[in-house]
Amino acid sequence: MTTGTHSMSTHERLSSRSSFLDTTEVLDTTPTDARITEWQNQWNSLGSQTTQWMERGITPDECLATGQDQPWAVCKTLNRLRVGEGRCKVSMKKWKITTSDACVYGESQTMEHIMRCSQAPQCTKLACANHWKDVI
Ligand SMILES: [Zn+2]
Question: Which segments carry the region annotation Disordered (predicted)?
Answer without folding.
Answer: 1-20
